[in-house]
Amino acid sequence: MKPRIVIIGTGLGGCYLASGLLDYFEVVMIEMLEAKPLLRDRIKDVALPAVTYPHVESGYGGTTKAWHNALMEIDESVFADKWPFLKNTMVPFYDLAYSALSGTTRQKINQFAQNLRNKLEIMGFSKSLLNQNMFIPKNRINAWKKLDLKNKVKTIEGEVTELIHDGVGRIDKIKICRKNDDDVLVDGDYFVLSSGGLGSPILLQKLFKSLPIDSLKNAGCHYEDHPIAFVGEVQLNKPLYKLWDFPVKTSSGNANIRLPFSFFWEGINVSFQLRPAHHFRLSKPREKVVSIISELRNFPFNPLNYLKLLKHVDDIFEILSFKFGLRIPTRNYTILMVAEQPPAPYCAVWKEEGDNNIYRRWELDDVYVKVLNNALTKFLDTISPVIKKYNLFSNWPTQVYSSSHHSGTARISKDEKNGVCDENGQVYGLSNLFICDGSMIPSSGFVNTGLTIVALAIRMAKFLSLQVKSSKIKG
Ligand SMILES: Cc1cc2nc3c(=O)[nH]c(=O)nc-3n(C[C@H](O)[C@H](O)[C@H](O)COP(=O)(O)OP(=O)(O)OC[C@H]3O[C@@H](n4cnc5c(N)ncnc54)[C@H](O)[C@@H]3O)c2cc1C
Hints:
Elements: E1 4-8, H1 12-21, E2 26-31, H2 39-42, E3 43-45, H3 76-82, H4 91-102, H5 106-123, E4 134-137, H6 143-146, E5 154-157, E6 159-165, E7 171-177, E8 184-187, E9 190-193, H7 196-210, H8 214-217, E10 227-236, E11 246-250, E12 253-258, E13 261-265, E14 268-276, H9 293-298, H10 303-309, H11 313-324, E15 332-339, E16 349-350, E17 358-360, H12 366-382, E18 387-392, E19 401-402, E20 433-435, H13 450-469
Parallel strand pairs: 1-2, 1-9, 2-5, 3-17, 9-20
Antiparallel strand pairs: 4-12, 6-7, 7-8, 10-15, 10-18, 10-19, 11-12, 13-14, 14-15, 16-17
Helix pairs in contact: 1-13, 4-13
The chain binds flavin-adenine dinucleotide (FAD).
Flavin-adenine dinucleotide (FAD) binds near residues 58, 194 and 449.
């Protein structure tokens, strides 16, 4: 008999893990769906907001219902400094993750990126800025649908509200609250939290109340998300717009590659994208730039968004360039900054007695804003040979929001004092509880986390399947 594994959440991590376990496990997936109040409306920011609404999604596919599936790899220096293992152990899984998500191979993507890098260098951009690439398939992937899990796993619809342990280091059952129905208890041989960077720590914090072990003390702490903001505008003497959304063909359709200008500065990784702009004249500079592309993608049936689009000319040209490869000549560009933020030293994600919300504290301190400011100066200095003039928004620090890459809240660490789970995702102190979602990522530099979540899920599926094959796990 196959062992039974219960995965809580059908988002990015949960789906790719489930798909990799089907040969060796009976897979049961629990999904809270879109019960009201919606999960996305239960996230309460007590400090700064995220740039996207929603921050998270619920229902089959989780936040992949809303994501852009832009794919990036975490740099090897981030692994070396902040992970308990080196990147080379992840490379085979990045290979598999790219193939699963991109319609092409990691090797080809690196070739496309190298081609773009050469062209940017010839145009006059310093090699030192051309480090990490971003691959963007034109159509987003809902992980649940893409993997056709509906026909492959058993599902239970409802919200998991409690993990129940047996007192000797195992999870025995979970409690599921079902809409218009009685609560149920579900048992299993193995349990995996794939409820996302904001969902998983909440269940671990509740478990901590009846099981006060060191690892669970860290749940909700070390929260990390990337600061993102349009910080200004620049006029260039080079036709960079020709290389924006550099097109590539894949087996699953067309895609684009971008190379954000990135570098390491005063302890953090920071990146700047110069996005073609058609709306501004530097003689009458703007003080703020806002993009509504995410809103439009996630709420396409709201006519208001189309009206708003009329006021966001840059977005119209961005859509034309992204979707149809139409590059309208311009000398003007907005500067979009995305940076690494050191993990919060306090518990940043939590729930309070008596309400159903998830509270999130994400904030920037003055010292950190100064580092960003210095990085911006350094960036402008480095690209000065191609700049004609620029305008920085005087109050850009007040426009920095987080970017919905919730991570770190149940992080991988070398021991239970510094995090929640080991490098295989197993929670320290519990023999049958695992984490497989954004919360396990200990650090990501400035890059988005989706590709790494999938690489970790494929890696964990291999680890667990090998355990069954070698009979360490029995049903
Ligand atoms: C608008 C937007 C755009 C984005 N674009 C990108 C991008 O371009 N590239 C990128 O890499 N990342 C992007 N992201 C982030 C990316 O979507 C997430 O990092 C990724 O989906 C997280 O995967 P996950 O497995 O951690 O959790 P999720 O995908 O969030 O899945 C969690 C699942 O658990 C379920 N769940 C939660 N709690 C419970 C419970 N108690 N009981 C039962 N079920 C539960 C939820 O309903 C959900 O289905 C974007 C995010 C947003 C919001």
